[in-house]
Amino acid sequence: MDLFDRIYRLHAVLRRARYPVSRATLEHELECKRATVNRIIKEARLYLHAPIKYDRARNGYLLAQDEGGPWELPGLWFNASELHALLAAHELLTGVQPGLLESALAPLRERIEQILKSRGSGGREVARRVRILRIASRRVEPAHFRSVAGAALARKRLRIIYHGRERDATTEREISPQRLVHYRDNWYLDAWDHAKRALRVFSIDRIRESETLDKPAKDIPDVRLDAHFASSYGIFAGRPRRKAVLRFTRARAR
Hints:
alpha+beta, 5-stranded antiparallel β-sheet, 9 helices, elongated
């Protein structure tokens, strides 16, 4: 554990403590000796202006409270395990949709890897140890995905040129995006079709053109969306007509 991690741990220990923390407890929590604990406290006070006080009566250290509330570490601080978790989340996101937020997150990823490298642990190991197996995914045009996702989050309408598989026909639609759905390695858009005046599911890989319109999207209540789309994804689409009962042997039941 380096100085960075120990300052982080010191802050965490003092912040959650209800009573002054003894030096022996800090030595145990920070995994270091008395002299190192003293140095960490001194540097936290000197460089980070940490209001660490020593309570002589109760023989322990505490974070002094001020009018602004509990003191926090300046900026955004992470320990090594949290940095690895961020990189793992980035790897998962990249595996689900290559190009999604890639340019925006690239500087953050580079900075995280630099911090980990300075501590002797490489961030590149995450890419080797986390695998996303995409079996039946279809290629999605990154520009269309960004357009659809942006309109859904900004609550704007979309004009799309859409090629439907069933009829092998291309049509122009004006839609209000409701939800992005990642199902069986592919992306779909649950949306309100203004021409049809009905809810529809659009496969994003079938979008040929997309344009965000300067019109507010029509909002459909979550309860209605859940009721309508509950039967839209799965082995069978549509409302259930029969009920199947599966019987398993004892070995398979386990």
